[in-house]
Amino acid sequence: MSTATALNVTPRTAADEAQSFAEYKAVEAALQPYIDSAKIGDGALCRTAFYDHAHIVGSVHGTFYDLDADTFKGAVNEAGASPDVQSHIAWIDISGPAAAAKVEFINWAGFRYTDFFVLYKQDGQWKISGKVYDSHAQN
């Protein structure tokens, strides 16, 4: 005996689709200062992408790091410019005012990184609430 399950899918209007697309573009824009800071080594620019409470967690060369956004700003400045860095946003997932994103980097100060971000939209603006990362071969 088989049972069929009916799916109730709310039809989306063109306006709904446009708004959904706009939210993805807004999350991309929120990540862009972080991405740009890798190329130019600008910690102050990077810092603008984060909430004040944000933490950055991961490890490099076996050392565990749990940095606040201001300390991470200094680390970006210390690493300096990486003009040959390449990056791409692998995915973005949004649910209301919450989002997650995965960004891949190669040759940021000679390293490959995979960054996982949690973002939140407050007062119409997306910002990074937290980041965890994998430094791959440098882990």
Written description of the protein model:
The chain has 139 residues and is of the alpha+beta class. The protein has a single domain (14-138), classed as Nuclear Transport Factor 2, Chain: A (Roll), CATH 3.10.450.50. It has helices at residues 14-40, 43-47, 69-79, and strands at 50-60, 63-68, 86-95, 98-108, 111-122, 125-134. A six-stranded mixed β-sheet has the order 2-1-6-5-4-3. Strand 5 and strand 6 (125-134) form a beta hairpin. It starts with 13 loop residues before the first helix and ends in a 5-residue tail after the last strand. The mean pLDDT is 94.
Q: What is the straight-line distance between the termini?
A: 53 Å
Give helix and strand order, one letter per element, not per position. HHEEHEEEE
* Helix segment tally: 3
Count all strands and give the number.
6
How does CATH name the architecture? Roll
Q: What is the top-level CATH class?
A: Alpha Beta
Instruction: Report the mean per-residue pLDDT as an integer.
Output: 94
CATH topology: Nuclear Transport Factor 2, Chain: A
Proportion of residues in helical segments? 25-40%
Low-pLDDT ranges? none
Rg calc? 18 Å
Class from secondary-structure proportions: alpha+beta
Q: What coarse outline follows from CA principal-axis ratios?
A: elongated
Number of domains: 1
Largest beta sheet, briefly?
A: 6 strands, mixed
Strand content: 35-45%
